[in-house]
Design a protein that fits this description.
2 copies of one chain form a homodimer.
Chain A (H helix, E strand, L loop, with lengths): L3 E4 L7 H15 L3 E5 L11 E4 L10 H7 L4 H10 L5 E4 L3 H12 L9 E6 L8 E4 L9 H19 L5 E5 L10 H10 L11 E6 L11 E3 L2 H26 L3 H21 L7 E4 L4 E4 L6 H16 L2 H11 L5
Parallel strand pairs in A: 1-2, 1-4, 2-3, 4-11, 6-9, 7-8, 7-9
Antiparallel strand pairs in A: 5-6, 5-10, 10-11
Chain lengths: 334, 334
């Protein structure tokens, strides 16, 4: 397999954390990796191949402008490595918008895809299969046809990544009935419900779902526009964090509570790991002509290992080819 | 004070639960109450006044149609009692859409209000002041001018209900910068940021906020369209429920964990009460010409007591008069 191109720059914890994850993926999982970044900034790469890039897009850069101006930045070079057949996939934990723009501009879209979408995984406590949410923020305004295509791409991804046989695809609305929601949602509902729409993708449409279904196993793929999807993601991140902090504070509120809590740690640890965003490694930009993983800016080395593994798995599963087939076989999107 | 009209019909737990809450509010808090419903269905009313209504709007009725057809339903009669000066406020735990439509059609809008909005309270662990979210579902599609007005109404409500001196009003978007979000959000941002916009309402605009701020004290009033607001509300409800269930399951996963958990109950109880939706009693329909509290369909007697107390408090605080002044003093909304 061609190496996975890992953008080593621009993440919150600095290049050392990314390099540590890349080294671990190479030595422990045997996945070939090429680091992309400023060679002087990378520290000990443990012999990993390095693709030199002189510039860095940072978190505050305007994504589209930065990708145009900083042609020798690590994130742009990582996308070019995939385009040029020097890498099998890219992983970036830097500026999300820049990773998206680089992938879109350098790799291009899969034929037939109207807009790429960011697919994130939401943990479902007690279930090995998380819920996939897309679009989580690539397109803040969407057409109904794009949403219908997100449904196809999400179904292919759920099946390629988690082995779901016939992924249940739901449309985010504010009530179960087809009559609920905005004009956009009603129109997308009609497109997703067309007989045969999912034939090439292997999923099935289960109608509208609501925000409350996100962390449950009621649905495999939640389709929505990038504004609503990003709001759902941030609301869950914030809500879980607030609640966990409040519980931890209560657990430390007295000596007696502290002792009781220590006895509970073994029981709570599996849930903690399930809910930890690092467990899933990153989001997938679906619809570009190559595998592109966008990791959280705060990613730990463990998150990077998981992102590289995900990238390699999706290359091996030929995710891009399966997306191309599903989109190509589908009815006209509008 | 005129009595609070309590719609006794159409809630999930049946009239007995509502009547129990109404009796408790009357006897323990001394708040005058008139029950509205089918006299035979109410059971022992403990001597509370009853306003007879022969019809019931149930949870599955189409709201607008039901309000037109069922003119003698309890929810319509409750709204009429406020309009006719026989009651000071209405409380309903029945069909939300029907309560909204009844209030809007029978009480009308406050002069100058373009659209009423549902304001819900989101608990902030450790803080006595929750976050107010509006619109939580009254208008799935909104104009920027409506959102700007929701900001005013939310500020007045935060101040009338929680005594917040200068409520911080944030606009829900997917990034802090004014350039982030949909065209609607950018336009609303410009309207909310106009100098003098909040002069009559007493709040101040702090710019964009994100879903992650909902359960924190970073903001007092979160403004958004009814689709996004409802998605935030349902996502939080579902997320908190899923997480709490998973924690409870972990706490019961072994004999040792069970014992440790029992010792933790006193420490966790205050948080549990804070997070319990019944604590806040209900949502407020802001912008109609009367006090209208919309409680959750699953409301317990405790939730109804809190809703009736909230109604009485908002009548005493002259919420409607303060909203009228704030909206009347504001610049043109668009």
């Amino acid at each position: 397999m061609l190496p996975v191109a890992v953008d080593a720059m621009g993440a919150d914890r600095g290049p050392a954390e990314i390099v540590a994850g890349a080294r671990q993926a190479a030595t422990e999982l045997g996945i070939p990796v090429v680091l992309v970044g400023q060679p002087d900034a990378l520290g000990d790469t443990g012999g990993l191949e390095v693709l030199a890039a002189s510039e860095v897009v940072d978190m505050h850069d305007d994504p589209a402008g930065a990708v145009r101006r900083k042609r020798d930045s690590s994130v742009v070079k990582a996308a070019e490595a995939v385009r040029d057949g020097r890498a099998s996939a890219m992983v970036s934990a830097g500026n999300t918008g820049a990773a998206m723009a680089s992938a879109l501009l350098r790799m291009g879209r899969i034929k037939g895809v109207q807009r790429p979408a960011i697919a994130t995984t939401l943990p479902v406590p007690g279930s090995p299969v998380p819920t996939i949410l897309l679009d989580s923020g690539a397109n803040s305004e969407c057409s109904a046809a794009w949403l219908a295509q997100f449904g196809l791409m999400g179904a292919v991804y759920a099946s390629a990544r988690f082995g779901v046989a016939e992924p249940r695809v739901g449309l985010v609305s504010i009530g179960e009935e087809a009559s609920k929601g905005t004009a956009l949602v009603k129109e997308a509902h009609a497109l997703l419900a067309r007989p045969g729409w999912f034939d090439g993708a292997g999923g099935r449409f289960i109608g509208n779902v609501e925000g409350r279904d996100a962390l449950t196993d009621a649905v495999d793929v939640m389709v929505t526009d990038g504004f609503t999807g990003n709001v759902i993601l941030k609301t869950l991140e914030g809500g879980v964090k607030t609640l966990v902090n409040a519980i931890v504070a209560a657990m430390n509120s007295s000596e007696e509570a502290k002792q009781a809590s220590e006895a509970l740690v073994p029981a709570l640890l599996p849930l903690y790991i399930e809910m930890d965003p690092d467990t899933y490694g990153g989001a997938m930009l679906l619809g570009v002509d190559g595998v592109c993983i966008i990791s959280h800016g705060k990613s730990s080395a463990r998150a990077i290992v998981n992102a590289i593994k995900l990238a390699a798995d999706m290359v091996a599963a030929d995710l891009v080819g399966r997306l191309r087939d599903a989109v190509g076989q589908a009815l006209p999107a509008d």
